[in-house]
Amino acid sequence: MDKKGRFKVFISYSWDPNHFDKKVEYIVTRLLNNGVDVIFDKYDCKPGNNVYKFMEDSVNNPIVDHVLIMCTEAYKKKADDREKGVGAETLIISPKVYQNCMQSKFIPVILENDGNGKPYKPTYIESNIHIDLSDEAEFEAEFDKLLRFIYNKPLLVKPELGSPPAFLENEEKGIIINSPLKYKAFHKALVNGKPNYLQLLHEFGEEFINDMAQFEIPKSEVENLASDKIDELILKKIEETITLSQTLEELAIDFGYYWDMIIETEVIQFIENYASYAVSLETRYKHELSTRDYRSDVVRFILYLFIVMLSAALIQRRRCKELKTLIEHKYQVFNTLDYTQTTEHDVLAFAKFSFFPLSISNMTSRNNTNPRVALQKTLSSRLHKFKLHDFQEADFVLGFVSYTRAEVQKVKGEHWRSFTLTNIPDVKLLHQMCSKAIYDAAKCLFGIDDPRELSMKYGSYAYNYNPGFPSNVFYPYYEFATLP
């Protein structure tokens, strides 16, 4: 790269005016037009210059990023036989190619193949990966590959190295997670239409609660800790449950895809069973300590994740009636009070599952950072199949539905709060509802027949209602049911 930050290459080729000179000139022109500075003897080697010194200086010049070796039958023969200028260049280049640190500098560019389709490459670079510009039909695609290589902008980017799987760290602490294996058995039976898949779903649900119980935080671990250390402990526990949350992500996708096979009461029962465990644990925690206790952040956060992921799965498959069923259901939760050996019955609205971990709120308050951004980072680290945007779209739709359906807010005054959002997302479902056909299929979710009324409700909700958004935030506008 030169002082101006431009990539520089040197062209090594065989003078062959009857065959490939024009193609080499065309390639040089294309490179120059795309911002690559090219050292080319026809432009840069002037009368009176020593040709061999020009070649040696060009190859050894530290600001030359790559040497592009234009491979033809004539070039291969001269290189292998050390003939003429190509032979001289070969004597300069070949020792450097055999030095591992220099291999990526020298790039074979194929201009000609033999009768069997084998590229003509000099022996010293025969095993090097090449760019093939010999086929006119593939020229543009291969030339793009060459440009990407020169600019170090590969089409495929190696993902960042992640952390060791959480389950390995858990096993070192004596925590053995079994529910992912139960889920795999259920998934296999479901996909293959085996009659025992519902029984396997029940077994998975029971095992999942047993696994979550291993992340409970005893009173002895927190009663002498400062509040910031309690937050750190809770957030560490949330981080350790990543394997379980990703298993629930797979389950949510199964429920969305195979809903017609899974009786909706089974989905509701799964939610109610886990919610009962979460509520019971929260009650026990609060009884143990007189101060405000939020150790249940761990189990409640997992429930919140599942509810939004399940909603995202249903929205993606446009299963609006099914999501409407889940939203309208009054969830029967049994609070088992361990310290009194009694059971209390409670009814929860769907919006009660909306949740923001107090441990994250406390942490961001101390650090003076945005709690919603912190929640987004926590979600991004554990979403495996869904993207964060998928999660946020579902979160927004649930909030909008809660706003439009007054009956959702009747139980204990709850409404769904879209905690993951720092702005209004562009929601694919709402875009699709600009079509009258899709609007008619989806309007049941919002409880409003008139598309104009729903458009007005949307504007009011997006602009005024959702806490945490700046008052002047831009939001997409939708004219529902205005297209066929």
Structure description:
- This protein has 484 residues and is α/β, with parallel strands linked by helices.
- It folds into two domains: 8-150, Toll/interleukin-1 receptor homology (TIR) domain (Rossmann fold); 166-422, no CATH class.
- The chain has helices at residues 21-33, 41-44, 51-60, 73-81, 84-97, 139-150, 166-172, 179-191, 197-213, 219-222, 227-240, 242-257, 264-288, 297-316, 320-328, 358-367, 371-380, 388-404, 428-432, 436-442, 451-465; strands spanning 8-12, 37-39, 66-71, 106-110, 131-132, 331-337, 342-348.
- The strands form two sheets. The chain has a five-stranded parallel beta sheet with strand order 2-1-3-4-5, sandwiched between helices. Strands 6-7 form a two-stranded antiparallel sheet.
For the residues shown, what is the average pLDDT?
85
Task: Give me the strand/helix succession.
Answer: EHEHHEHHEEHHHHHHHHHHEEHHHHHH
Which runs of at least 5 residues are low in confidence (pLDDT < 50)?
Answer: 408-412
Helical content band: 40-55%
Total DSSP E strands? 7
- The structural domain count equals 2
The description of the largest β-sheet is: 5 strands, parallel
Distance from first to last alpha carbon: 55 Å
Structural class, judged by helices and strands? alpha/beta
Cα radius of gyration in angstroms: 32 Å
Q: What share of the residues does DSSP label as strand, in percent?
A: 5-15%
- How many helices? 21
Shape designation: elongated
Spatial strand arrangement across the major sheet: 2-1-3-4-5
